[in-house]
Amino acid sequence: MEDSSAAAVAGLGAYNVRPLWTASVNAVTRAPPGQPLRRAVPTIWRYQIIRAELIRAGATVSVEEAERRVLVLVNPGHRTVEGTSADSSVFLGLQLVLPGEATSRHRHSAGACRFIIDGHGASTLVNGERLRMEPGDLILTPPHHWHEHVHEGQDPVIWLDILDIPVSSAVDAIYFEPGSRTSPEEIKEELCIFRVPGIVPFRGPLSTPPRYPLLHYPWTDVRAALADLAGHYDRAAPLHVMYTNPETGANVMEPYCLSIRMLRPGEELSPQLTSASSIIHIIEGEGQSMVGEMTADWERGDVVAVPSQTPAMHRNRSATNPAFLLQVDNSPLQHKLGWYREF
């Protein structure tokens, strides 16, 4: 029978077809019932180790020859997959810009955002608008928006890049276009009208708000909001806020939900088990996570991958200080496609 099966499929590649019944194609049917066929595995990336490698690279790799000086976070389950990434739907990288540097200007179809970790004095210019970068700030560079980075401070600046490259490349929608740098006369200062809660520019009933009206979410504002919630919420209630479009209430990035969890001193949290995969970035604090079979201690700057439909627990080990965790999950993308489930 094996010889007959082999003979039946021999030469089919010449016709650009392949049999569904072979092992490599039909693997999903052999996964445990109801379980996704996952490639990503629970993983932790140590910020201090990667930061040291970035600084070392900064001494030998110029920003001109690198386009972007980035170390990509690669999930071990993706090492054999073209376009390796931290998660099946999220590309993550740690980027370094040194004092006095200015990166090239470009745009692309992939949606991106940056979460600042270290350093002061740098800015991202998005369509000519200057967005000043401070640790903990979230800055968007949406699809088709021109962007570049300039650093006028004294210390290295490092941030976490978050892009939808695995999604846009999978559907052949990804492109890259270089451009010339923004001249000083063309730079506009940031529009801050959205800093007042509940206030947006006036629009008539027939007008449509822009898709990305706000590009900069300062950490000082988010942290203060969580601290205020902590003073009003019952101890049993989780402290969890999400980034949204201030005009529509939609997710700040259309494929992903970006949110912040605050763990009180000594608090332990087991998030709702869902079909979504997520990435956890430690903004402040130290603690421990259990993700599937992996148990890992973490500190500021570390990144943890929580694959789809994988139980997780996060614990703040400090008895005196809160911990703040950025969560990036693909629940909006899954929901739009009809895949999202909760268990």
Let me know the largest β-sheet: 6 strands, antiparallel
Q: CATH topology, which one?
A: Jelly Rolls
Q: Please give the radius of gyration in angstroms.
A: 22 Å
What is the rounded distance between the termini?
42 Å
CATH superfamily: Jelly Rolls
Overall strand count: 22
Shape, please? globular
Q: Strand-residue fraction?
A: 25-35%
Number of helices: 6
Helix percentage range: 10-25%
Q: How many domains, as an integer?
A: 1
Residue stretches low in confidence (pLDDT < 50, at least 5 long) are none
CATH C-level: Mainly Beta
Q: Strand arrangement, largest sheet?
A: 1-20-17-22-15-14
CATH architecture classification: Sandwich
**SS class:** alpha+beta
Order of helices and strands: HEHHEEEEEEEEEHEEEHEEEEEEEEEH
* Average predicted confidence as pLDDT: 92
Q: Key terms for this structure?
A:
343 residues, single chain, six-stranded antiparallel β-sheet, alpha+beta, globular, 6 helices, Jelly Rolls
